[in-house]
Specification:
- This protein has 290 residues and is of the alpha+beta class.
- The chain has a domain of 197 residues: Aminopeptidase, CATH 3.40.630.30.
- It has eight helices and twelve strands.
- Strand 1 and strand 2 form a beta hairpin.
- Helix 7 crosses helix 8.
- 37% of the residues are buried.
Length: 290
């Protein structure tokens, strides 16, 4: 593993300094990225939480909670198109086993801005966090959402080796999760790794949609070094059209990933094409990060 990250300045990731933060062109839009610290700015995240996650007031991370994030060494970072907040990411700082670690608790992006804003927010979070002394960022993600898998494991280079059952309960974000158990992957992002630097600096070409086609499918007891595991191509659509089948996917994925992680596999990649019925996770044994 390299002694330091290569992306230590926002400019290395295409950001341009501004008096309020940083400008960055994402797609065909020039957006302002900035730290959110005042109560009035943080209140704007509440609308995104409701529209993106479908959370109730009970599960909302309110401005009165988020206003303390920067006191832990973390930040709430926002992306603005004019006066409108179109995306944000928040991360709490702390220590686990005497190691500084940032917990990236929330990220939400307006529907019309997905496909680039999330990657930009995570890149800025990596820079700001590393400069603050954090070498690792962790977060949780629903294993059944292919778009999240593409961002987390391919574009960002994170990995997962832990499965968490029903983290927030069945009533969290029912508009998005349909009352299913809120199972999550525990995702780790080691900022010092060459793997992460190469993704953020654009030196890595994500897996082609059919890149994993020749790999065997995962089955409990398999001894292959690399296998693939299917994930629905559009879980939100499936949840709306066939809730019973969506529930079956939840428990099947739970069984498979818990068994895979217990036998030494690490989830390291994703391949798939939008509009296809399935994407595929890449699972590797004895994976070592550089």
């Amino acid at each position: 593993m390299q002694p330091s990250a290569e992306f230590v300045a926002p400019e290395r990731l295409g950001f341009e300094r501004a008096s309020e933060g940083w400008w960055k062109i994402v797609g065909d839009r020039r957006l302002l990225f900035t730290r959110l610290r005042t109560r009035l700015d943080l209140e704007k995240t509440e609308r995104l939480q409701r529209t993106v996650f479908g959370v109730s007031d009970r599960d909302l991370a309110s401005s009165s909670i988020l206003v303390a994030v920067h006191e832990t060494g973390g930040e709430v970072l926002g992306a603005f198109d004019g006066e409108q907040l179109v995306g944000f990411v928040s991360g709490w700082g702390g220590y686990v086993n005497s190691r500084a670690r940032l917990v990236s608790d929330l990220m939400a992006v307006e529907a019309g801005y997905r496909g680039g804003v999330g990657f930009a927010l995570k890149g800025l979070q990596a820079v700001v966090s590393f400069q603050a002394g954090f070498e690792e960022i962790v977060w949780t993600v629903d294993p059944l959402r292919a778009a999240n898998a593409r961002l987390n494991f391919e574009r960002l280079g994170a990995h997962a080796r832990e499965y968490m059952r029903n983290v927030y309960g069945e009533h969290f974000g029912e508009g998005l999760y349909g009352g299913l158990p809120t199972d999550r992957l525990f995702v780790t992002w080691p900022l010092r790794s060459a793997r992460v630097s190469s993704r953020l600096l654009g030196r890595y070409q994500p897996l082609a949609p059919d890149a994993l086609a020749a790999l065997p499918g995962y089955a409990p007891g398999t001894s292959e070094s690399r296998v693939r595991l299917a994930v629905p191509g559009d879980f939100d659509g499936l949840l709306a059209s066939d809730p019973a089948r969506a529930r079956e996917w939840r428990f099947r994925m739970r069984d498979d990933l818990e068994a895979a992680f217990a036998s030494g596999y690490v989830l390291t990649g994703f391949a798939g094409r939008r509009g296809e019925p399935h994407g595929y996770y890449l699972l590797e044994r004895d994976f070592v990060f550089e």
